[in-house]
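User: What would this chain look like folded?
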Amino acid sequence: MSSPLNIKQNLYNACFQFIENRLLTVQKTINEIQESLTSETKSSAGDKHETGRAMLQLEREKAGNQLAEIVNVKEALSKISTEKNSKTIGLGSVVYTTKANYYIAISAGELTVNKDKFYAISPNTPIGQLLMGKEVNAPIAFRGKAFVVKEVL
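Assistant: Here's the prediction, encoded as structure tokens.
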């Protein structure tokens, strides 16, 4: 079994990589839209041209919003300490329950560390809100299922 610090660091790194990949994807999309806008400017005029430009502008705005969201998530992730352990579940906690394991950080889906599965969740998700502030042996009821907190790192 790895040390608690090692598990936390690995989960943190996996979340960081998840955000970096999303960031690269959105930046690539923005660059492609920018190139399309540039080439659209050089092409024919008229209604079809204006519609194409308007659609590209909307796509660019959507990608810009995604970029802003990623920056906010990255900032939230940067506030997490992997060295702090607490008996109470909070931001950065690794939580083992009788049903599943969670990492309270950002919503990054399922992560595997040392063959153990963890769900990286944001504290403001429904399950995250239920877990926040709980301690070992706390009973949790979520979507008709009951489980108990076994361990908090």
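The longest strand covers residues 145-152. If you want, I can go into more detail on any region.
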